[in-house]
Amino acid sequence: MKDFLLDFENKRLFENGDIRTGESDNQNKHLLIVSEKASFKEFPATCVGAANYLESEDVSGLLREVRSQFTADGMTVNKVLIEDGKLKVDADY
């Protein structure tokens, strides 16, 4: 999917005086995971809010929510797991 691109501080990137666009699938996945619910006012139930799961000893809720949100966003989710302390997601639009 092509969309405008953000940097890690969620500021628009500019190129030649215009908003930079490009492949946004990974950016969309990142935003779904790190953004809190109600971050997108048109769809208040969207997003995972991964920070809310940081102190949880049971990661199954996080994995379930990632799978649910990615599926609702139109992705085919092949795998969601925690490996070496990192969230790994295999999903594509």
Q: Explain this structure to me?
A:
With 93 residues, the chain is α+β, with helices and mostly antiparallel strands. It has one domain. It is built from 2 helices and 6 strands, in the order E-E-E-E-H-H-E-E. The strands form 3 sheets. It has a two-stranded antiparallel ribbon with strand order 1-4. The chain is globular. It comes from Chryseosolibacter indicus. This is Oxidase.
Our Rg estimate from Cα atoms comes to 14 Å
How large is the count of helical segments?
Answer: 2
Our count of domains comes out at 1
Give the terminus-to-terminus CA distance.
Answer: 8 Å
**DSSP strand (E) fraction?**
25-35%
Helical percentage: 10-25%
Mean pLDDT score, rounded? Answer: 90
Oligomer: single chain
The helix-strand sequence is: EEEEHHEE
Main β-sheet: number of strands, strand sense, barrel status?
A: 2 strands, antiparallel
Label the overall shape. globular
Secondary-structure content class:
alpha+beta
- As laid out across the biggest beta sheet, the strand order is 1-4
In terms of per-residue confidence, which ranges show pLDDT below 50 for 5 or more consecutive residues?
A: none
Total strands: the figure is: 6
